[in-house]
Amino acid sequence: xxxxxxxxxxxxxxxxxxxxxxxxxxxxxxxxxxxxxxxxxxxxxxxxxxxxxxxxxxxxxxxxxxxxxxxxxxxxxxxxxxxxxxxxxxxxxxxxxxxxxxxxxxxxxxxxxxxxxxxxxxxxxxxxxxxxxxxxxxxxxxxxxxxxxxxxxxxxxxxxxxxxxxxxxxxxxxxxxxxxxxxxxxxxxxxxxxxxxxxxxxxxxxxxxxxxxxxxxxxxxxxxxxxxxxxxxxxxx
Length: 237
Prior knowledge:
Number of helices: 9
Strand order of the largest sheet: 2-1-3-4
Number of strands: 4
Distance between the termini: 24 Å
Order of helices and strands: EHEHEEHHHHHHH
């Protein structure tokens, strides 16, 4: 059994998509980030970066003590290696998946996240920031569109690279992007959206957080966007 410390964000959806695809038994432990639950000592003991998702695998491959992980990319790679699913075993195929997984972690996610922040959550409109991140998101959509021009999925067969990217394309309207401008990306997006595991993952998100998609409160914004080192409590021994 895997305990998944989760909230309904793109990074959280990545992991539920994988677990639903593989039928891996898991239990969701909600972490309501808008209420500051990511700063609880018991969560920080698993995720010292006070971010979701995180997991605890109580039955790691080969046995032994439970393994805890934070960072969604590391979690996807760990789960793929544990189950032998959604990552190739050959050197070239594995390298293809890993480079696109890291591309998402280093580029698509952070840039789209800043795009969403300045377009939706910032207390004041900053034209330079909005233009900067909207254009960079557009560039990254273009990179992905070009990549998908001659293959069904990002690394050929469906993989953790696709699961990493897809949730960050879901809010494309918020990002100021029109999928009709990216026909190969749109085809890929619609194919993943229709997968039963994707449907199940997003249905589960609605069960966990019925308010998903609703405007964020001012209190939640202060918790999420005003963090400094002083807000992170030290985990208890």
